[in-house]
């Protein structure tokens, strides 16, 4: 569900014309619908009733401060995976008690910062990290709440690059090592072992992998309890998929109906870390057609957005629907490509489009998650502006980078 709709052949975000936004702010341009974000969050919250659940937004999906403030005001917590994300979360107004710090490769600086800021919980990813975290806690004279990420060895049936819970994954402690790891953590001064964490992958559209991993997790919690370690929190991560093309993600109500009995038997409180499912379909990348090249074997629609603006198609071979901002009829089968000097610079391949012409505007849909967040300055291209639409108003929530921004921080003469 989203609030991008056609009105008399022209695409709107809520009550705002996308054509007007492009005329005012240029392209490429990211546009987000606040109404969509709020509706997705409230739907997810309702699906868990009446079980007390903490929703910690996975800000790696989209860390724009304006979007973070929406989740803050809705009462969400936030899941962070770097020093920069912790800083952004605090800047957005999240109290430290609503910040979780995870990630696979935390530096000593990051751990010390999390301890100093008194974030709610650190999710440890290895035995070595537990020792470093305990040392940081002792230096600060504090006890730090810690959860341990475990790897259930479950295939989430998603793209190999975003499968994080398999035995070959770099994330977490392997299942057979987990009991000893929890015992060690409980013995370290400065640590308060309160939880267990898992995250099996991203863009998962079937319930089965979640259930398989959570049943395994419940058995592990019981075993750890027999060691005298009473866990209070289970963090099941995120990973719930959305519709990009023809996927049919499970209904949230079905998910909670099947998952809750497994969680209840552990006696733990629950944390979920959704990202894509909250913001993915709330955003679009707007781009202008520069040229149309027709040939005997292939047609190309060359646009001003590129792989540096939205890398998911090139990186994951991901599908994003592409719509005309103004409908014009007709059709053309073409690759939609950008100006970057790479053969992998494409937004779509062999796509049926409504006969685009030079100067036309296109909307690359479902770009609210891992769009701007993964963008870069490759080919010395300034990053796009971002607009947040609320009702009849579109507000610049990140200005377009300038050419001067590209060399900021570099000396004029070495």
Can you describe what's shown?
The protein is α/β, with parallel strands linked by helices and 414 residues long. The protein has 2 domains: 157 residues, Lyase, Ornithine Decarboxylase, Chain A, domain 1, CATH 2.40.37; 173 residues, TIM Barrel (Alpha-Beta Barrel), CATH 3.20.20.10. Helices cover 29% and strands 25% of the residues. The strands form 3 sheets. Strands 4, 14, 15, 16, 17, 18, 19, 20 and 21 form a 9-stranded mixed beta sheet that branches. An 8-stranded parallel β-barrel has the order 5-6-7-8-9-11-12-13, surrounded by 5 helices. A 3-stranded antiparallel beta sheet has the order 1-2-3. The longest helix has 19 residues. The chain is globular and about 70 Å long. The N and C termini lie far apart (52 Å). About 3% of the residues have low confidence.
Give a quick rundown of the structure.
With 414 residues, the protein is α/β, with parallel strands linked by helices. It is 29% helix and 25% strand.
Number of helices: 12
The CATH C-level class name of the largest domain: Alpha Beta
Which residues sit in consecutive blocks of at least 5 with pLDDT less than 50? 156-166
Tally of DSSP β-strands: 21
Kindly identify the CATH topology of the largest domain.
TIM Barrel
Residue fraction in strands: 25-35%
What is the assigned CATH homologous superfamily of the largest domain?
Alanine racemase
Helix content: 25-40%
Which features does this protein show?
414 residues; alpha/beta; Lyase, Ornithine Decarboxylase, Chain A, domain 1; TIM Barrel; 2 domains; nine-stranded mixed sheet; eight-stranded parallel beta barrel; 12 helices; globular
């Amino acid at each position: 569900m989203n609030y991008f709709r056609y009105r008399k052949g022209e695409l709107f975000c809520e009550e705002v014309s996308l054509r007007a936004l492009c005329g005012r702010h240029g392209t490429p341009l990211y546009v987000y619908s606040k109404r969509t974000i709020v509706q997705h969050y409230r739907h997810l919250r309702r699906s868990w009733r009446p079980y007390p659940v903490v929703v910690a937004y996975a800000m790696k999906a989209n860390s724009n401060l304006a979007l973070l403030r929406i989740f803050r005001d809705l009462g969400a917590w936030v899941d962070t995976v770097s020093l920069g994300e912790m800083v952004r979360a605090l800047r957005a107004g999240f109290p430290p008690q609503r910040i979780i710090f995870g990630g696979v490769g935390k530096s000593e600086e990051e751990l010390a910062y999390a301890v100093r800021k008194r974030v709610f919980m650190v999710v440890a990813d290895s035995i070595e990290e537990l020792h470093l975290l305990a040392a940081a806690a002792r230096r600060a004279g504090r006890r730090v709440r810690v959860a341990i990420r475990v790897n259930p060895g479950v295939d989430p049936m998603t793209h190999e690059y975003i499968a994080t819970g398999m035995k070959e994954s770099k994330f977490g402690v392997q299942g057979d090592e987990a009991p000893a790891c929890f015992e060690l953590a409980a013995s370290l001064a400065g640590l308060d072992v309160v939880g267990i964490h898992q995250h099996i992958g991203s863009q998962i559209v079937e319930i089965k992998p979640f259930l398989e991993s959570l049943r395994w997790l419940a058995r592990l919690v019981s075993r750890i309890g027999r060691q005298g370690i009473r866990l209070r929190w289970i963090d099941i991560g995120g990973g719930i998929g959305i519709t990009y093309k023809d996927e049919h993600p499970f209904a949230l109500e079905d998910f909670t109906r099947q998952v809750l009995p497994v969680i209840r038997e552990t006696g733990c409180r629950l944390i979920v870390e959704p990202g894509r499912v909250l913001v993915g379909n709330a955003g679009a990348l707007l781009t202008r057609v520069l040229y149309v090249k027709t040939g005997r074997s292939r047609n190309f629609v060359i646009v001003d957005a590129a792989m540096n603006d939205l890398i998911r198609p090139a990186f994951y071979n991901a599908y994003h629907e592409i719509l005309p901002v103004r409908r014009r009829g007709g059709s053309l089968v073409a690759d939609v490509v950008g100006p970057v000097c790479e053969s992998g610079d494409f937004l779509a391949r062999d796509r049926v489009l409504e006969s685009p012409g030079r100067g036309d505007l296109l909307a690359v849909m479902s770009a609210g998650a891992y769009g701007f967040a993964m963008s870069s300055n490759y080919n010395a291209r300034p990053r796009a502006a971002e607009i947040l639409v609320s009702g009849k108003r579109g507000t610049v929530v990140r200005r377009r980078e300038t050419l001067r921004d590209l060399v900021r921080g570099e000396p004029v003469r070495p």
